[in-house]
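Study this fold:
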Amino acid sequence: MNRVRGRVCIVTGGAVGIGRACVQRLTEQGAAVAIFDMDEAAGHALATALEPRGEVAFWRVDISRETEVAAAIDAVVERFGALHVLVNNAGIAGPNKPTHELTEDEWDRVQAVNVKGVFLCTKHAIPHMKRAGIGSIVNLSSIYGLVGAPDVPPYHASKGAVRLMSKTDALLYAADGIRVNSVHPGFIWTSMVEQHLRDTGATDLDAARRDVGALHPLGHMGEPDDVAWAVVYLASDESKFVTGSELVVDGGYTAR
């Protein structure tokens, strides 16, 4: 229960889905956790529910806006005293259109959240981690940061970018004791995946879930906790010799 005791963590997109599971597991493992999200109702509700179990607080942050990111990260450090772990989880899928039908605004919106957001949070977390003398940045990429697929071009491009950003920052900040790794989930049953299935024409969600699950050699989709436990590992000293790596949590999807 103490795998990250004494650590201060930020989880972006922490109010729902994978982010919510990360917040829950990091809290129960002893961390003080800051939830960054745009969903105020869900964020406040999660913080309130977890307060009896540990130090947790919510900030409404649009991670595509530098002033908001900088102010929120400074506020976290003021409240909790330091920053040791950043989980860059927030992301959007964007429109499922072929490349030649996308508008510039549609492309830019996905990159603003999925790529620029990771950049901004990392940029403003690094000075605090340098002062702490230790840090772990966990960037949520995707199986589609490793392999391609004929759909959702802006999303796939963004997740490929996150993978390489992670490696670059791992090399840049290793001497400062800051580790940077990416996590690559397969299909995890969340509201984002449910919406993706609806957008691709699924009318029977149970059947669609089984069909997509069958793409994974283990025969089913993952759950948010499957990813959250990977994040706990990378946030903890158990992974003290791991940086610049991809941790794949995909039920075997990319093993073919």
Remarks:
- The chain has a mean pLDDT of 95.
- The radius of gyration is 17 Å.
